[in-house]
Write a structure and sequence with these properties.
alpha+beta; Lipocalin; 8-stranded antiparallel barrel; Calycin; Lipocln_cytosolic_FA-bd_dom
Length: 166
């Protein structure tokens, strides 16, 4: 009888937990990807808004990148999984160029800044695995010409542009 009760408890516990959605690649991870070489962390710091993302419902989400003596603190919305989640934790600039390693956000995958305009108004972030890609902007909506340039960068890096949406 105890075994039956124990089996029922385990079965109910397993039913209550939904597995996290598996990330779906937005680009072929075997293809080339490039990160920005010229990158000024102090200019990148601050508030960004998600202008486009591979995660439905993330457009408009806020992210705060705060630079300190130990790297970065990140807060806001993490748009890297199958759904929007809370982003928090530390992010270390690992280079070369604009490459980050998060301690908890973005599925702990390396994040690359693929491009940003010279005035740091729009930036494109992605991962070599292709599990995540997004366009950040300092304000919404971003300027049309900057958004068009961001789409070209997304396409150049092998992303399915149709899946990175507003």
């Amino acid at each position: 009888m105890r075994r039956l009760i124990w089996a029922a408890v385990l079965a109910l516990a397993a039913c209550g937990q939904k597995p996290a959605p598996e990330p779906v690649a937005l680009r072929d991870p075997k293809g080339w990807i490039s990160s920005a070489v010229l990158f000024d962390p102090a200019r990148f710091a601050g508030t960004w808004y998600v202008a486009a993302s591979g995660v439905p419902g993330c457009a408009g989400a806020r992210q705060d990148w705060v630079q300190d003596g130990q790297g970065w603190r990140l807060s806001g919305t993490d748009c890297s999984g199958g759904r929007a989640m809370t982003a928090s934790g530390r992010v270390a600039l690992t280079g070369p160029g604009a490459r980050f390693t998060p301690d908890s956000a973005f599925g702990r995958e390396p994040v690359w800044v693929l491009w940003m305009d010279q005035d740091y108004r729009v930036a494109v972030l992605g991962t070599p695995s292709g599990h995540f890609g997004m366009v950040l902007s300092r304000s919404l909506p971003p300027r049309g010409d900057l958004m068009n340039a961001a789409r070209e960068v997304i396409d150049f890096n092998g992303y399915d542009v149709r899946r990175i949406t507003r």
